[in-house]
Specification:
The protein is of the alpha/beta class and 255 residues long. The chain contains ten helices and nine strands. The strands form two sheets. It has a six-stranded parallel sheet with strand order 3-2-1-7-8-9, with helices on both faces. A three-stranded antiparallel sheet has the order 5-4-6, with helices on one face. Helix 6 packs parallel to helix 10. The protein is elongated and about 55 Å long. 40% of the residues are buried.
Length: 255
């Protein structure tokens, strides 16, 4: 089939579904200026994740880890929602998408207008104190960026160095997010898998769960993945900013 025919088939699946969910990964935010951390030129090319992105590293050397975190947050905070994000919000507003499960920490789904977002790996725009549990908006510490070098943000309650509210290697998925994602995967009849190779567990298990409960899996990726021709019922090759708006238009045309 042509890509237009694939998009039409996906639209008909969504139009007929009772519960639809999207699982998104780094690929949906690339056009917002956030490169995949694992890609060439990505963060992990310059910072060994086993040295800078584990919970053990943060607990033992939080100031060192913040040298990487400041770079990560500069990239994320300068990004803006793209047409893929806003198109998913349109699907939700049309009643054709019930939730987004995202592996991204960039807050761009919410910025794009989506209301039901399950943050599987947390959100870098929040900071949390591991000592006393107090939470802060990251923007409260924006002035630190003007210092050279910028000092890590400290809890105003107990003085401990704060941690972005994101899942580092070695940390568990937040309990509520894991529960809500599992419920959606088990109850949906269509799952869009967008901008992710779905290789990293436990998120990679969500399409498997959905498929095992009879859901149709629609994959939208730039390149083939292990889902292509196997778990995916339909694969649309292309970028999220091109494919998802076209998909929304086809769904809208179906009424």
């Amino acid at each position: 089939m042509t890509r237009a025919e694939d998009i039409d088939a996906a639209a008909r699946m969504l139009h007929a579904s009772k519960v639809a969910v999207a699982l998104t990964g780094a690929g949906i935010s690339v056009d917002s200026g956030i490169p995949d951390f694992r890609s060439s030129g990505g963060l992990w090319e310059r910072f060994d994740p086993m040295e800078y992105a584990t919970i053990e590293a943060f607990v033992s050397s939080p100031r060192k880890v913040w040298s990487m975190l400041f770079e990560m947050m500069d990239v994320v905070e300068s990004a803006r929602a793209n047409a893929g994000h806003t198109a998913l919000a349109e699907l939700e507003a049309m009643g054709r998408l019930d939730a987004i499960i995202t592996q991204n920490i960039d807050n761009l789904h919410q910025a794009g207008g989506s209301r039901r977002v399950i943050e599987f790996h947390g959100n870098s725009r929040r900071l949390v104190c591991l000592r006393c549990g107090r939470e802060y908006a990251a923007e409260q510490f924006a002035a630190l960026r003007d210092m050279s070098p910028p000092p890590p943000p400290e809890c105003r309650e107990c003085g401990a160095i704060l941690k972005p509210d994101v899942v580092l290697f070695g940390e568990a998925i937040p309990e509520r997010a894991a529960r809500d994602a599992a419920i959606m995967a088990a109850s949906c009849d269509v799952m869009l898998v967008i901008g992710t190779s779905a290789m990293v567990y436990p998120a990679a298990g969500l399409p498997v769960t959905a498929k095992s409960r009879g859901a149709k899996i629609i994959e939208i990726n730039l390149e083939p993945t292990h889902l292509t021709g196997t778990l995916a019922d339909l694969t649309i090759m292309g970028g999220a900013t091109d494919v998802i708006p076209a998909l929304v238009e086809r769904v809208r045309a179906l009424g």
